[in-house]
Amino acid sequence: MTIQTDALRSTPFSPRFPATTGESIDVYGFAVPLWYTDPETEYDAIRNRVALLEFSMLYKWDLTGADALAVADAVFSRNLRDLGPRRIAYGVVVTPDGYMLDDVTAAVLGEGHVRIIGGNPATGQALEVAGAGRDVQVAEIRDTLAVLSVQGPNSRALLQRLTDRDMSNEAFPYYTFDPATEIAGIPAHVNRMGFTAELGYEVMVPVERALELWDAVLAAGQDLGVQAAAAAALMQVRVEAGMIMGDVEYDETSTPFECRMGWAVDLEKADFQGRGALLAHKDDVRTRVVSVTLDCAPDVAERARLLHDGSEVGFVTMAVPSPALGGATLALARVAAPAARIGTELGLDGEVGRAVVVRTPVHDPERTRVRS
């Protein structure tokens, strides 16, 4: 169903959306299209060519001041003091009781400057509380930065055409950043990362130069098969990659150990928000996020309750047609820990289909493409 978009904000790149753009959804207060042309073409661009995806909607907090690093470390689950130069850390922010608020990235941009990117305004509130009375300013900067994610096997070749900076794997490895790159003559902060399980980069530029960036990247990549891609294709690739989303695969009833983020909790670091509670939660994992294949259509599977031996054990969080599985229905699901074993067969409430727990991820299980 098409939502009312007149109450939502336009994104920095929306003036370039084509006339064929489909219905929109609400992403953190912005109107975001489900597709520009069709999800199949856009999926193909992400997996086999190069795609442009907008991530301007995510919250971005800049912490500046002498205590910026200390305040970020007081909230974030990873130890930012141990990061190597220009490394990006992926981790979580939890409530004081140890339940999930957000999955975020963090980077130390310089002395007294940390940037955290996530999807829940509660992260900003936690940073403000941790910074009270300290030498730090916490600013949410979505209004100043546009973010264009360039993803797919041809993404490096495309961006290399637009910059003198060496974009090779050796010079710009996975999960690193460069805060002072020029792309098409535009000052840019570039992260090598993405939400697609493909080689890719996120390019941040001042909002007033967003359309200039879009036009330059599209013009330079025509022979590489560049294609704008929207939310429907992104959801397909992220489900295939087993990548979680807030209020979908987790909420404030989930611990990091229950939504595939336990690895990102550094219980050896000094105290941070929720650490004491997490020590208790790590040995009390009651649910898991798993991948399941289903023998019914995605719209039937979406949010369906899952049964094991006649008892409800969880539910489907998001179901998509998976090209990686020849078009079969694939979903992520939250299930009770005893039902999470690979190969477990589950029923759908109402006997509308069957599900089988499979290995996560189904696409590129060794994560070699993102590191190539």
UniProtKB/TrEMBL annotation:
Entry superkingdom: Bacteria
Record-linked SUPFAM superfamilies: Aminomethyltransferase beta-barrel domain, Folate-binding domain
Gene Ontology MF, one: methyltransferase activity
Keywords in alphabetical order: Methyltransferase, Transferase
Its EC number(s): 2.1.2.10
Domain GCVT N-terminal: start-end pairs: 19-269
InterPro entries registered for this protein in UniProt: GcvT/YgfZ/DmdA (IPR028896), GcvT/YgfZ_C (IPR029043), GcvT_C (IPR013977), GCVT_N (IPR006222), TrmE/GcvT-like (IPR027266)
Domain Aminomethyltransferase C-terminal: 288-364
One GO term of the biological process aspect: methylation
Positions annotated to bind substrate: E202
This protein's record includes keyword Heme: no
Protein name: Aminomethyltransferase
